[in-house]
Write a structure and sequence with these properties.
Length: 744
């Protein structure tokens, strides 16, 4: 530390850069390590409130789970059967009596904003659920007191609490994929970034350490001097990073992420996380310091005389061979028409191949860049290009520090796209359209009209079921769908033979229907005034192939709106809305329906609301990971470029004295930065897309090749190159400082 304090402003600036870089890295590390804790805390509270059946003669319960917009609404109805003690869930003091209700704070706000949902929450609100009984601050949860007679499917209430939550925030298998992806897009670049911060001003530090070695300091003490400076800077930065993360957590817990809200206490790092940040960052700095100063300690003369450096080792490039071999093998099998999905081998081989490929990109970038620079320098006719290539050939390690973080970011972005595509396939049906069924009896005429104006809704249709007496005997029924041929064509895979202006029976040759209605069969339909009208099944048929499930099912009767019977009973009717099937549109439509008809029960055909909510949470967490990865990559780039500019001021001064113009020096700087980025980003796009494809192939989904994601990756890479080139220009100062020449 005395050596650092005596090195002037340059040493203090280097120490400050190292501390700031370590602080950013520690904050990102704390954020990544705390994400599983947030999810665990959420699921633990959810598990603690789960009602549990058991031998209890004092209370019964019945649970209802409905969509409220695009989020689940959960209601627990409880009824006392006998006087005596009853179990109490966490978050409330007692169970509500008949006519009482206890709501979560978010549900209380929703009730105040939309009084129409009072029908879902009968009773007088007597309190709110405290955080101990909620998964998060945005939970829609209610305990409602009632009588046993109003619970036809009541279950004896044995207690509250389960070993695990029935409705987890993220299921275990998906959580493993999320951990691996976050590790690739955050932790791998983070290790590189912390290593970069620990090796700032490598050349000047090596020369200073070599001087200490020459005046009699031992090899061990020389290494300790170098590592000690890095350890102190990393520890100071780690403390600042943890404190900064604590402040950010307090803010973000109140703001939340789409689909994920938590309490500030959930996001506060545990003792183990703090220990990893405060000890892991200095430990990494110590290891890096030991290796980075070894040449100065063992061969101080060559360092002081700026002897020729050894070329980078090529062994790291060999990691690409097994990684690309496994990834490419799965891609070849898919091209050959074989399906390698399923089995336990791919669950081990693909993640291992991804890690080997990422490591090969890191360790292979320096030798590949040096080889390419040597070839380009031999054929270059331009002085700036020749200077840049010779410098890159001599010191490819500095290029590695500049480019690696951004290269890994693009590689991780490819993998993230694959995870999102795979989760999107398993979380929703693959049809290009999405249907939403709402009972007509739950809608007023004004609400029906307003629902047609919900953003994202393309069309609406009405359907009715035929009447049958409730005598316990099974009778065949017929569904009547009021729609046009255009609506049929737009909502099914294909339909042949549809004629506007006449009733026709729908027929799917690939679907079985018991007691298939025959032409001439009669079916009664109930009207609003209680009368019955009879419809006859026509001979005309429409051959079609619907998206299953759908309102257009086989054996249904298609009736044009102009010929639909008037005043059919709403109790037997269903309003079907149709929209596009992308998740954003689905959430928008569900939220729009919830705002207009909050008490109506909405059935998003083929979709589980929990899966939709889970996909929203995963998207948010992966977006956070990409933001953290971007912060790390940009920070590594800025720190490395600034450090390189400081390190090469002597060389820039020498070139300026020899007559190099400012434009020449700036071109040299830009080319030195852009070349490793072009090599690294090109390799990252190719290997990342292959890794993404192998993941999709082994996942067993319908999508194997994410062609839509390639333009985004190319655009990101191009943006990185342009930003890096522009940021490198002001780093060169054509200022002649004799102090730099005197040192050399």
């Amino acid at each position: 530390m005395r050596l650092l304090s005596g090195s002037g402003r340059r040493g203090c600036a280097r120490f400050l850069l190292m501390a700031i870089g370590s602080g950013i890295g520690a904050a990102c590390l704390a954020a990544v390590l705390t994400i599983p804790s947030i999810i665990t805390a959420h699921d633990a509270r959810v598990a603690g409130r789960e009602p549990r059946p058991g031998p209890n003669n004092n209370a019964v319960y019945q649970e209802f789970r409905d969509p409220y917009g695009s989020v689940p609404l959960r209601r627990i109805f409880v009824a006392r059967t006998n006087p005596g003690p009853t179990p109490v869930p966490p978050g409330i003091d007692r169970l509500p009596r008949a006519g009482e209700a206890i709501l979560s704070p978010k549900l209380s706000q929703a009730l105040a904003t939309h009084p129409g949902i009072a029908g879902l929450l009968p009773g007088r609100v007597i309190g709110t659920i405290s955080p101990e009984g909620l998964g998060g601050s945005e939970d829609l949860y209610a305990y409602i007191g009632t009588t046993p007679a109003e619970l036809p499917e009541a279950i004896p209430l044995g207690g509250f609490g389960a070993k695990r939550a029935w409705h987890e925030l993220i299921d275990e298998s998906t959580l493993d994929i999320l951990r691996f992806t976050l590790g690739c897009i955050v932790l791998l670049p983070l290790i590189i970034f912390l290593s970069v911060c620990a090796r700032l001003s490598g050349e000047s530090r090596a020369r200073r350490l070599a001087a200490l070695r020459l005046v009699g300091l031992s090899v061990k003490d020389t290494l300790r001097v170098n590592a000690g400076e890095g350890v102190v800077a990393a520890f100071v930065g780690a403390v600042l990073g943890v404190v900064g993360y604590l402040g950010v957590n307090e803010v973000m817990a109140r703001v939340g992420l789409p689909g994920l809200h938590w309490y500030p206490a959930d996001g506060r790092p545990e003792v183990s996380t703090i220990a990893v940040c405060l000890l892991g960052c200095p430990a990494l700095a110590w290891v890096v310091g030991q290796f980075s100063a070894r040449r100065a300690a063992l061969s101080p003369i060559s360092v002081r005389r700026t002897g020729e450096s050894k070329p980078p080792r090529k062994y790291g490039t060999l990691l690409l061979i097994p990684g690309l071999g496994v990834i490419g093998g799965y891609c070849v099998l898919s091209v050959m028409g074989r399906d390698p999905s399923g089995g336990s081998a791919s669950s081990v081989l693909v993640p291992g191949a991804v890690l080997l490929t990422g490591a090969g990109l890191v360790f292979g970038l320096a030798p590949i860049t040096a080889w390419l620079a040597r070839r380009l320098a031999g054929v270059a006719k331009s002085l700036p290009v020749a200077l840049a290539m010779r410098r890159t050939e001599v010191d490819p390690g500095s290029s590695l520090r500049v480019a690696t973080g951004l290269v890994l970011l693009v590689f991780g972005a490819s993998l993230t796209q694959g995870v999102l595509v795979e989760l999107d396939q398993v979380s929703r049906r693959t049809a290009p359209v999405q249907e939403y069924n709402i009972n007509l009896s739950e809608l007023s005429p004004k609400q029906r009209q307003q629902l047609t104006q919900v953003p994202g809704v393309r069309m609406q249709m009405l359907s009715y079921s035929s009447w049958a007496p409730m005598d316990g005997e099974w009778r065949p029924r017929l569904d009547l769908v009021v729609a046009t041929c255009a609506q049929l064509d737009a909502t099914t895979r294909w339909a042949n033979g549809c004629v506007d202006g006449k009733p026709m029976q729908l027929h799917d040759a690939n679907a079985a229907y018991p007691e298939d209605p025959q032409p001439g069969d009669r079916f009664p339909f109930e009207t609003r005034d209680g009368r019955k009208i009879t419809l006859i099944v026509p001979r005309e048929r429409v051959n079609m192939s619907p998206h299953q499930p759908s309102v257009f099912r086989t054996a249904a009767l298609l009736v044009p709106p102009s010929l639909a019977p008037p005043n059919l009973a709403d109790a037997a009717g269903t309003l079907t809305l149709v929209s596009d099937a992308d998740p954003a549109t689905i959430r928008s439509v569900l939220d729009g329906v919830g705002a207009i008809a909050p008490t109506a029960s909405v059935d998003p055909v083929g979709i589980v609301i929990d899966s939709l909510a889970q996909l929203t949470v995963i998207r948010s967490l992966l977006a956070v990971g990409m933001v953290l990865g971007l912060v790390i990559g940009v920070a590594a780039f800025v720190v490395s470029v600034a450090d390189r500019a400081m390190e090469r001021r002597g060389q820039v001064t020498a070139l300026a004295l020899l007559g190099a113009r400012a434009g020449t020096l700036r071109v040299v700087q830009v080319v030195q930065v852009v070349l490793p980025l072009v090599v690294g980003l090109g390799a990252a796009i190719v290997t990342g897309w292959l890794a993404e494809s192998s993941y999709l192939i082994t996942g067993g989904g319908a999508v194997h090749w994410d062609w839509e994601g390639l333009p985004l990756l190319f655009a990101c890479a191009l943006g990185v190159l342009v930003a890096a080139a522009l940021a490198s220009v002001p780093m060169v100062r054509r200022h002649i400082d004799p102090e730099h020449i005197r040192r050399d």
